[in-house]
Amino acid sequence: MHALNQPRRAEDALEDLKAGLGAHAVLTGADVPARNCNDWSAQLPRRPLAVVRPVDATGVSQTVAACRAAGLPFVPQGGMTGLCGGATPEAGWVAISLERMTGIEEIDTASATMTVKAGTPLEVVQNAADAAGFLFPLDLGSRGSCAIGGNLSTNAGGNRVIRYGMTRDLVLGLEVVLADGTVVTNLNKLLKNNAGYDLKHLFIGSEGTLGIITRVVLRLFPKPRSTMAALCALSDYDAVVTLLGEARNGLGSNLSAFEVMWPDYWQVVTERIGVRAPVGSGHGLYVLVETHGSDEAADGARFQAWLEGMMEQGVLADAAVAQSHAQTQAFWAVRDACAEFGQVLGPHVSYDIGLVVAHMDAFATRCKTALSAGIPGCESVYYGHIGDGNLHLVAWVPGLAIEQQPKAAMDAIIYGLVRELGGSVSAEHGIGTMKKPWLGHARSEPEIALMRTLKTALDPDNLLNPGKVI
User: Fold this and answer.
1) Which residues pair with residue 382 across a beta bridge?
2) From the UniProt record, which GO molecular function terms apply (predicted)?
3) What is this structure's pTM?
């Protein structure tokens, strides 16, 4: 009887939503956009039963209530730029897209906060902060497409974690719709607020499995009055570790980025992609160092003196210093060129892991060897935000389509080494479905059991983005 009634219940639920939210807010069948069928991960797209596009938390709550009444699983969606399948639907699910929930509601200059709707693109948030004389420091390559709610749901990292922290460090308050449709609003602007549990941290990083974030209060920071950047060449990884320590000591709180690129990465971006290299090839490693400061003259002199000291000590083999904003952007173009890997490498699999800094080069060397030996023809390149313990790599077998890439074999090699070295299978991209089989490599059984307890408590019917993370 349940199976016979289920299609009718689903149809009734969607008709109720059309009546309540407007027919244009509920897309079904051929009207479901391709973008809502998959994120940027290497999974095959899956068309949901419907895409519902509310404009506020009340609409999200109504959608959740309708889905629950019909027994329909539902998944929240933002910019769909995730890489682990966290926002990907299954057939028969309802996708709750926040794409119409956009806009800056308030910038409080006295509190240095911004209240924003969850579907707002990150770049819009950045630009609004800049226009108000502030900096919102979260920055990702997908800034023009990703939504701030999705950034929160995955606790995104990005390029400046070494100074400003992860996304959770940039959030003061949230509005969330729970799995039962309850709207919990705590748009807190206070930096200090110890009135009970800090509930926002339940939802930041939970990948839409515990609640649907609808509005957020973000911390803003003073806009830097100076930005200094240098692209450095070093002989080996010991020199990189030395440079990082000296940067922390010599540049202090001004240090905003410390990006490391291995020679295989350098070769791909400078020779195959064609990005102009500020320093010559043939070195052991390459590092992009950036600082944010408040006094251009003093900061410039300090940065130059620090670099000269590193050269005199033999830490650096070569270095180029940006003399303008355009040159700083050109330096970052070398690091951001990974966005073009698909055009020059063809189908490939991306990885995002966390390791203590001391182990990163050993991991890169061992992993490259193991992939080549264990998977005929497998190539790989390495790069990352080394200052905050985050290493990225991509692996591929040339000539194979994405569905033919031996991802299972790659995963076993890569995540096996991560576990051996005490790292994390996800530094900033989340778990979703792609990394779910490997969660135990980075979290203990008691930790995973506690995650399941929280999920059961908040979503006892297991309808909110089921099967993700745990």
Assistant:
1) 393
2) FAD binding; oxidoreductase activity
3) 0.93
Q: Are 86 and 96 in contact (CB under 8 A)?
A: no
Q: Which long-range contacts (CB under 8 A, 24 or more apart) does 396-403 make?
A: 396/345, 396/346, 396/347, 396/348, 396/349, 398/345, 398/346, 399/346, 400/347, 401/347, 402/42, 402/347, 402/348, 403/44
212 CA to centre of own chain: 17
User: CA-to-CA distance for 90 and 95, rounded, in angstroms?
Assistant: 9
The CA-to-CA distance between both ends of the chain, in Å, stands at 31
In order of their start, the domains of the chain are 2-100 (3.30.43.10), 104-222 (3.30.465.10), 226-338 (3.30.70.2190), 346-429 (3.30.70.2740)
Helix, strand, coil shares of the chain, percent, nearest 5, are 40, 20, 35
The span from the CA of 470 to the CA of 458, in Å, is: 14
Q: Are 435 and 425 in contact (CB under 8 A)?
A: yes
d(CA 338, CA 264): 12
Contact 419, 441 (CB under 8 A): yes
pLDDT of residue 44: 81
E strand or H helix at 115: strand 113-117
How many residues does this entry show for the chain?
A: 470
Q: How many helices (H) and strands (E) does the chain have?
A: 14, 18
Cβ pair 116, 220 in contact under 8 A: no
Distance (Å, rounded) from C-alpha 313 to C-alpha 348? 40
Could you report the average pLDDT of every consecutive run of 10 residues in the chain (470 residues)?
62 96 96 95 88 98 97 97 95 97 98 98 98 96 94 94 97 98 98 96 98 98 96 98 97 96 97 94 97 94 97 97 95 93 94 96 98 98 93 97 95 98 96 96 97 98 97
The pLDDT value given to residue 5? 57
How are beta strands 74-77 and 104-108 bridged, if at all? Answer: unpaired
Tokens read off for 453: 């307890």
H or E element at residue 62:
helix 57-70
135: left (phi over 0), alpha (psi -120 to 50) or beta: beta
Q: Collect all residues with Cβ–Cβ distance below 8 Å to 125 and sequence separation of at least 6.
A: 104, 114, 116, 136, 138, 148, 218
Buried b / exposed e across 199-220, counting CB within 10 Å, b at 16+? ebeebbbbbbbbbbbbbbbbbb
